[in-house]
Design a protein that fits this description.
Layout (H helix, E strand, L loop, with lengths): L2 H5 L4 H8 L5 E5 L5 H14 L8 E5 L2 H13 L6 E4 H16 L6 E2 L4 H10 L6 H16 L7 H7 L10 H17 L2 E2 L1 H14 L1 H10 L2 E4 L7 H11 L5 E5 L14 H4 L1 H4 L4 E5 L1 E2 L4 H11 L11 E2 L8 E5 L2 H17 L7 E5 L5 H10 L4 E4 L8 H15 L6 H11 L12 H23 L3 H15 L7 E5 L8 E6 L15 H15 L2 E10 L24 H19 L4 H18 L9 H10 L4 H5 L6 H16 L1
Parallel strand pairs: 1-7, 1-8, 2-3, 2-6, 4-5, 6-7, 9-10, 11-16, 12-14, 12-15, 13-14, 15-16
Helix pairs in contact: 2-3, 5-10, 6-7, 6-9, 8-9, 10-12, 15-22, 16-17, 18-21, 19-20, 24-25
C-alpha cells in the first residue's frame, strides 16, 4: 500500500502523530488510546517517506517487554534496523563500545542486585543487615542516584522531598551509607545499573568526540512512558540530543505511579517550556474500556490536578455497569470474588482474561486461598507466591515442630508466639516497603488461625494440615489461571474482567501516604487499576480484616460514586434466573443437579465451608448434563481437579449411577 493508505489504519489524532516528523512532539496519551500504535506508525511512516533512516532512530522504553513489543510491531510494519531498547540497555551498549577509548582497561562487572554490596556497607556502619532492611536500604540508594543526589546532599534533599525514614535510620545515617556503598562498590570493581547511566553522562560531557559519534548515529528520538523519566534519564536524553529537537515523547501524567522511585511527570507536563513551540497532540479515544468503566475512571482522576492530564472518551459499545460490593471481612470478600469468577467462567470468560488487583503484595494470600478452595488456577504477578515466601516457610517449619510436640492451649496464642519469634508484632510497622509486606504476610497467618479457632476449634496440628493443603492446591499446575497482581505490577496490562479488591482507607490510599503528593499518587494508582479493565469492572472493600477487628471505611476516592447497597438482591435474582434457564434447557438434568446440590451442602456444612468452595453450581450442572460413569469421564469436566476427584469422585459417581 502507498503511504496514504497506510495512514487509514489510524484515527485523526494518531494520524497527526504519525505525520509530524520534524521538530519536538509531545503526545499526551490516555490509557487504552493506542499510543504504541501511534508512535510505531510514526516511525514506519517516517521510514516510508524517506524522512527517517531506520539506523538513525532510537526508540527508548522502560521495560524489556515494551521494547520487544515495539520491535515486533515495527517488523510487522516492514521496518527493520530501528534501535528500540530500554534506557539502561541503550546506555550499556554505548558505554561498553566506547569504554576502551574513553576510560581504558577492563570493563567493570555489572552487579544486577545491590543487596550484597549494601549489606556489606551497612554492616561496616553497624546497621542491621537482615534481608528486609537491606532491600529497603537498596531502594533508597537507587532513589538517590536516579535523582542525581550526592551523598553529602542527601540529608537536605530527603528532608525537602519529605522522604520517610528508612528502616528506622536517620537521614544522616543513610547519607553515610550512600558514601560507603560507593567505596564498597569500587573495592569490588563493580558498577550498578544507575552507574551505567551516570558513567555515560560523564563520557558525553568530557569527550565531545564521542558525543559527536553518538549524535551522528542517532538523530531521531522517541521516548515512551515519558511520565516515568527520572532526573538521571532526562539528563542523559539531553546529552543524546545535544541541543537538537527531533524528539517525540509519549506519556500520561495520570499514570505517574513511581514518584517514590525517582520518576517525575514534570518533564512531560513541562515539555513545551523545555521545547518552546513544540507541538502537543492529545490521544483521548479509549479503545480498551467500555463507557461505564471510562466514566468511573474519569470520575476518580478528576480529583487529581496534575498539569497535562487528559480525559478519556470510550470508543467501545456500552457494557455492563461497574459492580460495587461491601463485605464484612477480607475472607468474605475473597470468597465472593472467587464465586464471581466462577460465574464469569460459566459465561465463557477465560480465566486468563480475569485479574484480581490489590494495593500490597501481602494481600494476595487471602485471594490465593479463596481461588484454591474454589478449584480455580491462578498466577501471581510481581511477587512471590504466598507459601514460597521465606518468612512463611520458616513459620510453617516452626508450626510443624509445635504440632509434633503436641502443644496445647489456644491456637491463636500459640501461632502468635511462633510469629513473634519470626519478627511479627501485634501492630504493623509505620514505614512502607519490605518490612510492611513481611508483616502483612505473617499477619495473614495470625488472622487465619483466629478464624479457624473460632469456627472449628482447630488445634495446631489441624492448622498445619490446613496450611499444607492450601499450599498444595495453589501449586497445582494450571495453564488457564486468574492473574493476581499488585496495582503497580499491573501497569501496562489489561484484562477483560478486573476485580479491584481491598479498596478501603488505609489500603487505598495506603496509610503511609501522608503528604498531598503521596495521596495524589495513590489516586493515580487507583486510576491505573480501573483502566486495566476492558469489559467488566468489580470494585470492593471489606469492613474489617477479621472477626473482632476494627471497622474500615471505603476509600475516599470512591465516596462520590459508591451506590446504595442493592447488589445482594440483584445477585439473588441473577442466580434464580440462571437456575430457571438451566431448567428450561436441560429439564432431564434438574433432578440430578438438585441431588448433587444437596450432597454438596452436607459436605460443606461438615467442613465449615461455603458450598461453592466444594463445587460451584457451574460444575454440578455440567456433571448433571454429562452424567459421567467413570472417574476418567468425571475428571474431564471443568472444575473437577485432581484433589477434588480423589476426595469426592466416588461419591459423585454413586449419585450419578443411582
Amino acid at each position: 500500500m502507498d503511504s496514504e493508505e497506510f495512514l487509514e489504519y489510524l484515527d485523526p489524532e494518531q494520524r497527526r502523530v504519525a505525520t509530524y516528523l520534524d521538530g519536538p512532539l509531545c503526545v499526551r496519551a490516555g490509557a487504552g488510546t493506542g499510543k504504541t500504535r501511534a508512535i510505531t506508525y510514526r516511525i514506519a511512516y517516517g521510514v516510508r517517506t524517506g524522512a527517517f533512516v531506520p539506523q538513525n532512530v532510537l526508540a527508548v522504553t522502560f521495560t524489556s517487554r515494551a521494547a520487544g513489543e515495539m520491535r515486533s510491531r515495527l517488523r510487522d510494519l516492514g521496518v527493520r534496523g530501528v534501535s528500540a531498547q530500554t534506557f539502561h540497555a541503550a546506555a550499556l551498549r554505548q558505554l561498553r563500545y566506547f569504554w576502551p577509548t574513553a576510560v581504558g582497561g577492563y570493563f567493570p562487572s555489572l552487579t544486577e542486585h545491590k543487596a550484597p554490596l549494601v549489606s556489606q556497607a551497612a554492616g561496616q556502619l553497624g546497621m542491621a543487615v537482615d534481608r528486609v532492611t537491606v532491600r529497603d536500604l537498596a531502594a533508597e540508594v537507587e532513589w538517590a542516584k536516579v535523582s542525581l543526589i550526592a551523598p553529602e546532599d542527601y540529608a537536605e534533599r530527603a528532608a525537602q522531598e519529605e522522604r520517610p525514614e528508612v528502616a528506622g535510620y536517620s537521614r544522616d545515617e543513610i547519607a553515610r551509607l550512600l558514601n560507603l556503598y560507593e567505596s564498597v562498590k569500587t573495592e569490588h570493581r563493580a558498577i550498578d545499573f544507575e552507574d551505567v547511566l551516570l558513567l555515560l553522562v560523564g563520557v558525553l560531557l568530557e569527550r565531545p568526540d564521542i558525543a559527536h559519534q553518538i549524535r551522528s548515529q542517532y538523530r531521531y528520538f522517541v521516548v515512551d512512558e515519558y511520565q516515568d523519566v527520572s532526573p538521571l534519564q532526562h539528563r542523559l536524553l539531553q546529552l543524546w540530543l545535544g541541543g537538537r529537537k527531533n524528539l517525540c515523547v509519549v506519556g500520561d501524567v495520570s499514570q505517574t505511579i513511581y514518584s517514590f522511585a525517582g520518576a517525575s511527570s514534570h518533564y512531560l507536563a513541562g515539555f513545551t517550556q523545555e521545547f518552546p513551540g513544540a507541538t502537543v497532540v492529545e490521544l483521548v479515544r479509549d479503545y480498551r474500556s467500555t463507557p461505564q468503566i471510562v466514566a468511573a475512571a474519569n470520575e476518580v482522576i478528576a480529583g487529581d490536578r496534575t498539569d497535562g492530564a487528559v480525559q478519556l472518551i470510550s470508543q467501545k459499545p456500552s457494557g455492563p455497569a461497574v459492580v460495587w460490593h461491601e463485605y464484612a471481612d477480607d475472607t468474605e470478600e475473597a470468597s465472593h470474588i472467587a464465586g464471581e469468577i466462577l460465574t464469569l467462567r460459566e459465561q465463557g470468560v477465560p480465566l486468563r482474561d480475569i485479574a484480581i488487583l490489590y494495593r500490597t503484595n501481602a494481600q494476595s494470600a487471602t485471594y490465593e486461598a479463596a481461588l484454591s478452595a474454589a478449584g480455580l488456577g491462578y498466577t501471581v504477578r510481581g511477587a512471590e507466591r504466598f507459601f514460597e515466601r521465606r518468612e512463611i516457610r520458616e513459620a510453617m517449619i516452626a508450626m510443624r515442630s509445635a504440632a509434633r510436640e503436641g502443644v496445647t492451649g489456644s491456637l491463636t496464642s500459640n501461632v502468635q508466639s511462633i510469629l513473634h519469634t519470626g519478627g511479627w508484632r501485634p501492630e504493623p510497622p509505620e514505614n512502607a516497603g519490605a518490612a510492611r509486606d513481611r508483616w502483612e504476610a505473617l499477619n495473614a497467618l495470625n488472622v487465619l488461625a483466629a478464624d479457624l479457632e473460632k469456627s472449628r476449634g482447630a488445634s495446631m496440628a489441624e492448622f498445619v494440615a490446613e496450611l499444607e493443603e492450601r499450599a498444595q492446591l495453589q501449586n497445582a499446575p494450571e495453564i488457564d489461571g486468574v492473574t493476581l497482581s499488585s496495582l503497580h505490577a499491573a501497569k501496562g496490562l489489561e484484562w477483560e474482567a478486573v476485580f479491584l479488591a481491598g479498596m478501603s482507607e488505609g489500603l487505598m490510599p495506603i496509610s503511609l501516604a501522608r503528604t498531598g503528593e503521596a495521596i495524589s499518587e495513590e489516586r493515580r494508582l487507583l486510576y491505573v487499576g480501573m483502566t486495566r479493565a476492558q469489559q467488566r469492572l468489580f470494585i470492593s472493600f471489606a469492613r474489617s480484616n477479621g472477626p473482632g477487628h476494627g471497622k474500615r471505611k471505603m476509600s475516599r476516592f470512591l465516596l462520590r460514586m459508591w451506590p446504595a447497597p442493592e447488589k445482594p438482591v440483584s445477585a439473588r435474582k441473577s442466580r434464580a434466573a440462571r437456575a430457571a434457564a438451566f431448567a428450561e434447557q436441560y429439564p432431564d438434568a434438574v433432578a440430578l443437579f438438585d441431588k448433587l446440590a444437596a450432597w454438596r451442602s452436607d459436605v460443606a456444612h461438615g467442613m465449615g465451608r461455603a458450598p461453592y468452595t466444594v463445587f460451584h453450581d457451574t460444575t454440578l450442572r455440567a456433571i448433571a448434563v454429562a452424567r459421567p460413569r467413570t472417574m476418567d469421564a468425571l475428571a474431564r469436566i471443568k472444575g473437577v481437579g485432581a484433589s477434588k476427584l480423589s476426595q469426592w469422585g466416588e461419591e459423585i459417581l454413586d449419585l450419578v449411577n443411582e
